[in-house]
């Protein structure tokens, strides 16, 4: 049991793993904030998906007008969905990558570029910035995840 605890302690002391944990936490918190932003937009635009959510604005027919879609709410929801599609793979592949023994400088480069690209993608989507800004920020983050996956596969399968 002590040997297992020593291994966990060594992992926590590993600079690459700590960098991974830091940047994974940043993008996960960013993704979680999208839920709050969606709620904020729903409330301020009075655009709800469920009848029970409209109760504070009226009952019956008067509340039904709040059961609607709103372009701003849908835009925020799309950002959140895009985060789910990109951050979840980054977290899984990033962990495998961190455990594959990369150089700290290369790991930091991957983690920082991905994190910056996801934050830029959110701003590009919400403001909205003209294309190709959003598309490029998505592609950069996606490429980083593929680069890490390639390194993991190359290390594990000796590609």
UniProtKB/TrEMBL annotation:
It comes from the Eukaryota. Belongs to the MAPEG family. Conjugation of reduced glutathione to a wide number of exogenous and endogenous hydrophobic electrophiles. This is Microsomal glutathione S-transferase 1. Keywords: Acetylation, Endoplasmic reticulum, Membrane, Mitochondrion, Mitochondrion outer membrane, Transferase, Transmembrane, Transmembrane helix. PANTHER family: MICROSOMAL GLUTATHIONE S-TRANSFERASE 1 (PTHR10689:SF6). One of its GO terms (molecular function) is glutathione transferase activity.
């Amino acid at each position: 049991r002590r040997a297992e605890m020593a291994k966990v302690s060594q992992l926590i002391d590993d600079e690459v793993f700590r960098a991974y944990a830091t940047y994974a936490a940043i993008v996960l918190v960013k993704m979680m904030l999208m839920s709050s932003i969606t709620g904020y937009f729903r409330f301020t635009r009075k655009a709800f998906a469920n009848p029970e959510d409209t109760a504070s604005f009226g009952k019956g027919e008067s509340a039904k007008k709040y059961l609607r879609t709103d372009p701003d709410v849908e835009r925020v929801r799309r950002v959140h969905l895009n985060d789910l599609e990109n951050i979840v793979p980054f977290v899984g592949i990033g962990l495998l990558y961190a455990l594959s023994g990369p150089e700290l400088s290369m790991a930091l480069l991957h983690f920082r570029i991905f994190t910056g690209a996801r934050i830029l993608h959110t701003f590009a989507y919400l403001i909205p910035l003209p294309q190709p800004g959003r598309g490029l920020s998505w592609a950069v983050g996606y490429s980083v995840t593929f680069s890490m996956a390639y390194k993991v596969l190359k290390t594990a399968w000796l590609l």
